[in-house]
Amino acid sequence: MIYFIQAGPIGPVKVGYTKCEPKERLRSLQTGSAFKLRLVGYCEGTKNGEAVLHRMFRSLRMEGEWFRFHIGTMKIIYELCGFKLVRPVLGNYNANNIREALNAI
């Protein structure tokens, strides 16, 4: 499962992979965080799929699996998690070609 956890309402977003339930992962991360974390969403995926997303969002990488908040990124995340929004664009990527890349692995 690929999950997206955000620190605060406009804070950085962690893009990660877990074999457990995303809510369990949120609880685990919350224990070590000084900021209130929230589960933005999750979708079916693999460790390789997580790596694809990390490469696609690399211009926003802060540290490790944490990425700067960007409205385009959030729209892509919402679409990947099944929420339909205005067609998101981040650089040359949008939810459709990200989904295609994830399905190709």
Which terms summarize this structure?
105 residues; alpha+beta; 5-stranded antiparallel beta sheet; 37% helix; globular
List the helices and strands and how they pair.
Elements: E1 2-7, E2 13-17, H1 22-31, E3 37-43, H2 47-56, E4 61-63, E5 66-67, H3 71-80, H4 95-103
Antiparallel strand pairs: 1-2, 1-3, 2-5, 4-5
Protein described:
The protein has 105 residues and is of the alpha+beta class. It has one domain (2-103). It is built from four helices and five strands; from the N terminus they run E-E-H-E-H-E-E-H-H. The chain has helices at 22-31, 47-56, 71-80, 95-103; strands at residues 2-7, 13-17, 37-43, 61-63, 66-67. It has a five-stranded antiparallel beta sheet with strand order 3-1-2-5-4, sandwiched between helices. Helix 2 packs antiparallel against helix 4. It is globular. It starts with a strand and ends with a helix.
